[in-house]
Design a protein that fits this description.
By secondary structure, the protein is of the alpha+beta class. It has 25 helices and ten strands. The strands form three sheets. Strands 1, 2, 3, 4 and 5 form a five-stranded antiparallel sheet that branches. Strands 6-8-9 form a three-stranded antiparallel sheet. It has a two-stranded antiparallel ribbon with strand order 7-10. Helix 8 packs antiparallel against helix 9, helix 14 packs antiparallel against helix 15 and helix 16 runs antiparallel to helix 18.
Length: about 625
């Protein structure tokens, strides 16, 4: 029996796993053969250089002196300057790469060329030996690698700043997986870099340099990166949460194998798709091959581009859980214009105010109300400097309008018409008036702009204004469907009565204390108002009877044959035909309204409030 039970348990686990895996009908044909892929270069000894604070300061001083000299001789090349800055961050490596990527958010301060280069930062994608991979896996999982995996590819599939990726097959159920292994010594390296960055920022604060950058907030972001990206249990949790929300979008994401995922090792489902970066590379170098692949896999680039944006909007505004790094290396393409999101090491969510303001900001742009959009953008600022606000908002509105006009034109580059374009227009005005943005907004904006790395190839004529309007319509429809569900109605009613109870318990006694001295004066007025509310309740009740008759007239005519009333029949005929479910909502709203009027009249008629309940 125990053996039989164990077999049943394994069968159930395997069936559940099959349900979670990508369906075979979506698996595309390859676009690049394995032998065509560039192999990851392996170094036997990892670079563990440690740069001192003095060296870091000296390196940046030399860089800025070079900029000053170029200005003096009037031979400044902004692209060359951007390339040199990116080279410095890549040389320093480690957490400095993440620091450079954070500074890339500051489009309100740095030229666009510098921000673009810092966005492309990569940290020496050199692989490390299989012996280090083996020792990391075995120390984390507590078992020999040959027992865990039936097959393990010694050659890495990819190498990045934090991890090395291998393909493998689990011994337990012969399932192909991807194994993400953290670089050895990374935690110590990041900690050293973070200490130096903190010292450097404290030095800048002491010298009163760069206060406008709000570098303290950047340090908080770096500390979050240090905590979360060096512990893959955070990413495993992110993957499970995102998989649940993305399922509602019709978007797939890989499953994570919790049993094999620890602090420095992450094991996830293998996705047999085509990496967006490979597709874009083929599209640029061999357009005919890309066209054939599109035909073979029923793939429409414009359709996919629109799906990507609509999904990201939905993640931001409805789920409040969004993929914060959707570059072409984190998107897999599958059949029928579908896609898979991977790498959830960086996800984002917004506090309520920022989320509401950003939603209102994009809605205003979609409705072409550019002044209102400018108002909401100003609200993103941590604090607003003492400037001419009417002039600031007018210039900002003109900048947004300029971008909107460009977005409708044919023949312009994708960059000029993308969200990056409107961000650049607004950033110019914000910089002119020293209007500081918060890092939460900048991170959100960069998430949308990172997607441009794919959209500019998929759909060069992409129209953001039209897509924003499309999203708004879809979101309103989903919100309406959600509101009319029974559980939502019950929850709303519960929240209403809880609010009334909270008012009665917490606020009413305080109001009583404040109004007690005026009770004698206001008693007659209160009684008169209570009487008025009672009469209004009676009138509402009569309207409810008429509406109830109209409901029966429209949907259950047979039931009122014996009680026909000519006046009521005439009223019922004047009303438009209302769906059954909407009648239910009307009656619920009327009951709540009558209940509210009753509660208010009771409050006004009571002579003693203290310690009494109104419900």
């Amino acid at each position: 029996m125990p053996v039989f039970a164990a077999s049943i348990s394994r069968l159930v686990d395997n069936l559940r796993l099959l349900e979670q895996m990508l369906k075979e009908k979506y698996i595309p044909t390859p676009i690049i053969e394995k032998k065509q892929r560039k192999k990851v270069k392996i170094v036997e000894k990892l670079n563990t250089r440690r740069f001192s604070l003095i060296y870091v300061i000296w390196r940046f001083i030399i860089y800025f002196l070079g900029i000053l000299f170029a200005r003096l001789v009037k031979k400044q090349d902004i692209q060359k300057t951007a390339n040199e800055l990116r080279a410095i961050f890549e040389e320093l490596g480690g957490l400095w790469v993440k620091t450079g990527q954070l500074l890339a958010l500051r489009t309100d301060i740095f030229p666009q060329e510098i921000c673009d280069e810092l966005t492309r930062l990569q940290y020496g994608a050199l692989g490390f030996p299989i012996e280090l991979v083996r020792s990391t896996i075995e120390s984390e999982l507590g078992a020999p690698i040959d027992e865990i995996f039936a097959d393990f590819d010694r050659e890495p599939l990819a190498a990045a700043s934090i991890a090395q990726i291998h393909t493998a097959v689990l011994s337990k159920n012969k399932t192909p997986v991807v194994v993400k292994v953290q670089r050895p010594g990374l935690e110590e390296s990041f900690k050293r870099d973070l200490d130096i960055i903190k010292l450097l920022i404290n030095l800048l604060k002491t010298l009163n340099i760069g206060n406008y950058l709000r570098l303290d907030e950047a340090v908080v972001s770096l500390e979050k990166i240090f905590t979360e990206e060096l512990d893959y249990r955070y990413e495993a949790s992110n993957m499970r949460r995102m998989k649940k929300t993305l399922r509602n979008h019709g978007v797939y994401s890989p499953s994570v194998y919790k049993k094999y995922s620890k602090r420095r090792v992450l094991v996830m489902e293998y996705i047999p798709g085509v990496l967006m970066a490979d597709y874009i590379n083929t599209l640029n170098n061999d357009p005919e091959r890309a066209r054939k692949w599109d035909e073979e896999n029923n793939f429409n680039r414009e359709k996919l581009g629109k799906k990507l944006v609509l999904s990201l909007f939905r993640q931001i505004f409805e789920d409040n859980l969004y993929h914060a790094d959707l570059h072409p290396g984190n998107i897999f393409l599958v059949r029928n214009s579908k896609f898979v999101m991977i790498d959830f090491g960086s996800i984002g969510s917004l506090d309520k105010d920022l989320r509401t303001n950003y939603s209102n900001y994009t809605n205003a742009i979609g409705k072409e109300d550019y002044v209102k959009a400018a108002d909401y953008f100003i609200r993103f600022a941590i604090d607003v400097p003492r400037v001419d606000i009417p002039r600031l908002r007018a210039e900002m509105a003109r900048g947004i309008e300029t971008w909107a006009d460009k977005s409708r034109l044919d023949g312009l580059s994708y960059k000029e018409k993308s969200l990056d374009g409107v961000t650049s227009e607004i950033a110019k005005v914000a910089s002119k008036y020293n209007l500081p943005s918060n890092w939460g907004f900048l991170k959100l904006s960069r998430s949308l702009l990172t997607l441009d790395g794919s959209l500019q190839y998929l759909t060069p004529d992409f129209n953001y204004l039209k897509t924003i309007r499309t999203y708004n319509k879809q979101a309103e429809r989903r919100a309406f469907i959600q509101r009319i569900r029974i559980e939502s109605i019950v929850a709303s009613m519960r929240d209403f009565f809880e609010t009334v109870d909270e008012y009665n318990t917490l606020i009413l006694p305080k109001l009583r204390e404040r109004t007690l001295p005026f009770e004698g004066k206001n008693n007659k007025f209160g009684l008169a108002l209570a009487f008025g509310l009672r009469m209004f309740s009676f009138a509402t009740l009569v309207c409810g009877v008429v509406l109830g008759y109209s409901f029966l007239f429209q949907h259950h005519f047979e039931s009122i044959k014996l009680i026909h009333n000519r006046l009521f029949d005439e009223v019922a005929r004047q009303l438009p035909s209302i769906p059954y479910l909407e009648w239910i909502l009307i009656f619920i709203a009327m009951i709540l309204f009558l209940r509210t009027l009753s509660v208010c009249s009771v409050i006004l008629e009571q002579k003693e409030y203290e310690g009494k309940s109104i419900l």
